[in-house]
Automatic annotation (TrEMBL):
Classification via SUPFAM superfamilies: Periplasmic binding protein-like I
Record's protein name: Membrane lipoprotein TmpC
Start and end residues of each ABC transporter substrate-binding protein PnrA-like domain: 41-297
Record gene name: tmpC
Similarity comment: family membership: Belongs to the BMP lipoprotein family.
PROSITE patterns: PROKAR_LIPOPROTEIN
A single GO cellular-component term on record: plasma membrane
Topology of this chain in the membrane: Lipid-anchor
InterPro entries: BMP_lipoprotein, Peripla_BP_I, PnrA-like
Organism of derivation: Nocardia aurantia
Cellular localisation: Cell membrane
Keyword Lipoprotein applies: yes
Pfam name, any one: Bmp
Primary location group: membrane
Keyword list, A-Z: Cell membrane, Lipoprotein, Membrane, Signal
């Protein structure tokens, strides 16, 4: 199988150990069940989507350590997501790992229909959580607020902007928090939020670039890209117009050195590990756990262990980093509360 960047060895080893211990309890004990197999299903083609790649990496590393197979089913639309889920449950694996809000309705339907199958959903959770489903979500508004602090301190025009995938509560957790963080250091600052929309909201670099250019033309000199695979368009627009940009999910700074200041990071590997730990320990399912700054599930690249090698532009501003560390500590301690939309 093709390997991409691995999760830390220690995390992969623990994942493997947990799955081995959980095998007897998964798959109903049927000799035909692939109780050691893990199936990972994406909501869209992986392509250059680093977030989806990260989900596949965790699955493949766990399977490699176990000496068994891992399967990845890439979806393209609603129908292919359903078809992939049908194919996965037919294999009766130890676990089916799903990723993003696109699976909210489908995972409820399939978990109810197949109560002996274990499911994990990363980055979202339905309102009704079946007993055989465990969700791991992120407090994306916390690192987004920190990025806003950076934008407020680094900005010259007093005008920041966000280009996000959809005008929904979920994406406002990024865009609103970014503006709030910027205003915390510059109360007079103004904010522009634009949304891609359409059938390819998280994978349309051309539309993302068009909207970023619109924001820049309105006076924005700090632009936050929350469009998944479309962020390349945001960064291209920023580079062409000598403004600064911010990324999401993984370290995107190498895509545009000197342009991308920092990123709001989601620790997908940690979420998967914690969900599997709950299964191994026999903890009740039907749960949703939020991973924020305090849980080291959500963070920013500049505060991570690999910050020095990240290539992020904020590293050239130690005074800004000092302020971000203090705000991070205040959020963790509960001294700063960030209003946010619910999913």
């Amino acid at each position: 199988m093709t390997r991409i960047r691995s999760i830390p060895r220690t995390a992969a080893g623990v994942v493997a150990a947990l799955l081995v211990a959980a095998l007897a309890g998964c798959g109903g004990g049927d000799a035909t069940a692939n109780s050691a197999e893990i199936v990972y299903i994406t909501d869209a083609p992986i392509g250059q989507n680093q977030f989806l790649q990260l989900g596949r990496t965790g699955t493949e590393e766990a399977a490699k350590t176990l000496g068994t197979a891992a399967r990845t089913y890439e979806s393209t639309d609603e129908q292919s997501r359903r078809s992939n889920l049908e194919a996965a449950v037919a294999r009766r694996p130890a676990a089916i790992v799903l990723i993003t809000y696109e699976f909210n309705d489908l995972v409820t339907e399939f978990a109810d229909k197949y109560p002996d199958q274990q499911f994990a959903l990363v980055d979202s959770c339905p309102k009704h959580i079946p007993a055989n489903l465990r969700c791991g979500t992120f407090a994306e508004y916390e690192p987004s607020y920190l990025l806003g602090v950076e934008a407020g301190l680094l900005g010259r025009s007093g005008h920041v902007g966000t280009v996000a995938a959809r005008d929904s509560a979920f994406f406002h957790r990024w865009s609103d928090a970014f503006a709030q963080g910027a205003r915390s250091v510059n109360p007079q600052l103004t904010d522009t939020q634009l949304f891609v929309g359409g059938d390819n909201a998280v994978g349309d670099p051309a539309r993302s670039k068009e909207l970023a250019l619109t924001a820049i033309q309105s006076g924005v000199d700090q632009v936050y890209g929350v469009t998944g695979g479309g962020n390349g368009g945001v960064f291209e627009a920023a580079a062409q117009n000598h403004v600064l940009a911010y990324g999401v999910d993984v370290n995107q700074c190498p895509q545009a050195p000197g342009v991308i200041v920092d990123n709001a990071i989601k620790r997908v590997d940690k979420v998967v590990l914690d969900l599997l730990t709950a299964i191994h320990q026999g903890a009740p399912g039907g749960t949703s756990t939020v991973f924020g700054l305090a849980q080291d599930g959500s963070t920013v690249t500049s505060l991570g262990p690999d910050a020095a090698a990240s290539g992020c532009a904020v590293l050239q501003h130690p005074e800004v980093l000092a302020r971000v560390r203090q705000v991070r500590d205040d959020i963790v301690a509960g001294r700063i509360t960030i209003p946010h939309a619910t999913n």
